[in-house]
Amino acid sequence: MRIDTRDGGFMIGVISKPDTREKLEALSADAQYDLACACSCSKDEHRQRGSHGNWIYPVTLPNGGKSILFKTLISNVCTNDCKYCPLREDMDIRRCSLRPEETAKVFLDYYRQRKVFGMFLSSGVLGSADATMDRLNAVARLLRKKYGFRRYIHLKIIPGASDAAIEEAISLASTVSLNIETPGAKNLAKLSNKKEYIKDIIEPIKLISKLTARGMKYEKVKQTTQFIVGAAGESDAEIVKYMFGLYDRLKMHRVYFSAYQKGLGDESIIGEQLEPETPNDIFMREHRLYQVDFLLRKYGFDESDIVFEKNGNLSLTTDPKEAWALGHPEFFPVDANSASKFELLRVPGLGPVTVRRILERREQARLKRIEDVEKVGIRLQKAGKYLAF
To answer: Which residue in 299, 307, 343, 344 sits closest to 324, CA to CA?
Structure first.
C-alpha cells in the first residue's frame, strides 16, 4: 500500500510494510549510482541486473578470476541535499529500509547458493551519519561475529561520520570507501549546502589512510573513492590533480568515476554548471578518466604527463597515452630489443601484459618485426608505428 507523508515541506512516497524482496529490489536498484567497488573501462566489470531485478557487479579477483558482488543500500531514505543524486531528501520516490538482520540473511542466502562472493553495503543518510554507520556496521558485525563470514565486505563510510564509527567499519570490512564526489570545496558547494568538504570528506579520508597505512593494524583493508564527473562543471584537469594526490599522498587503492547523467539530478539548480554534452560525451569523459587512472597506477605516468585540451578536459577523440606520444615525437621510435620496461609502457597500444611478453621473448631471440611479439591486432598495429626493430 502506498501512503504520502509530509517531511520538511516535501511530499514523500512511502511503501507501507513492503516485504524483504520488494525492499531489496528497490534498494539494490538505487545502489547502482555508487560505483566505488566495481565498474571500469573493462566490459567484464559493467554492472548488470540479476534474476531478481537487483543490480550485481562482476569484479576481477586478485587471482585474475571473475566473480559477482552483491550490492544494496540499507536505506534509500536520505537527509542530504546532493543535487546530482536522485535519492536526495526532496525527491518523491519509493522509500524503504532493510533491518541489519534482514540484510545479513538475504546476503547469506545468495552467498550459500554461490551466486555472489561478497557484499558492498551503502546507504542514504538515515537520521545522522553515525546512526547510519551504526546500521551499516551492524550488518558487518552480524556477518563476521554471528555467522562467521570471513570473505569480502565493502562498507560505505558516510560523510561526517565520527572517528570511532569509521574505525569500527575498518575493523569489520575488507574495503571501505568514502566518495570524494568533486575536486575541491568550491565544486562541492555547487552541489550541497549541508556537506563540509574538509570536515566531512577530506579529514575522514585522511583518517582512513592513516589507519590502513603499511605497518598499521588495518593495513590489509583497502580504501576506494569516487568522483561524480560533470555534475559541478569541473574540468578533467581538476579531477586528475586530486586523483594524483589521492594516489601519491594518501595511497588510495582505487579511484572510480561515475558520469553524471542529466535527468537524474536537480537540473534547475546545477544545469547552468554543465557544459552542453551528449550522453556519449559524458560517458567518454568517464572512460578517458579511467584511462588516465590506469596510466597513473600501472604505467608510471605522472600528473604532469597528462595532456588536456584548452578547456581543461581530456580529448574525446584521442586516448591520453597517444596524446602524450603525439606531443613527444623525440621519444620515438622506441627500440623493442633494448628499451626499458618504462620506455615500452610509453608506447601507445602496449599494455603491461604485452610489455612483459616483449621482455621475455627478446631474451630468447632478437625481435625482428612486430609479428614476433604476438598476433597483430588493432592495438599492436598502433604500437608498430612507435617501435623500431
So the answer is: 307
Distances in whole angstroms, Cα of residue 146 to Cα of each of 150, 166, 278 = 11, 21, 49
Residues 6 or more apart whose CB falls under 8 angstroms from that of 101 comprise 142
Q: What SS3 class is residue 15?
A: strand
Q: Look at the block and give the residue holding cell 514523500.
A: 12
CA 251 to CA 247: how far, in whole Å? 5
Domains of the chain: 8-317 (3.20.20.70), 328-388 (1.10.150.320)
What residues contact residue 112 under an 8 Å CB cut-off, 6+ apart?
none
Q: Which residue has the cell 542529466?
A: 262
Radius of gyration, CA atoms only, the chain:
23
Nearest to 200 by CA among 232, 165, 168, 246: 165
> Is the pTM above the cut of 0.85?
no
Q: Are 295 and 320 in contact (CB under 8 A)?
A: yes
DSSP 198: I
The per-residue pLDDT for 374 is 85
Measured CA to CA, the distance from residue 119 to residue 107 in angstroms comes to 7
Which residues of the chain have a pLDDT value below 70?
1-19, 21, 23-67, 93, 262-279
pLDDT in the model for residue 71: 83
- Which residues, 6 or more positions from 123, have their beta carbon under 8 angstroms from its beta carbon? 73, 74, 75, 132, 135, 136, 156, 158
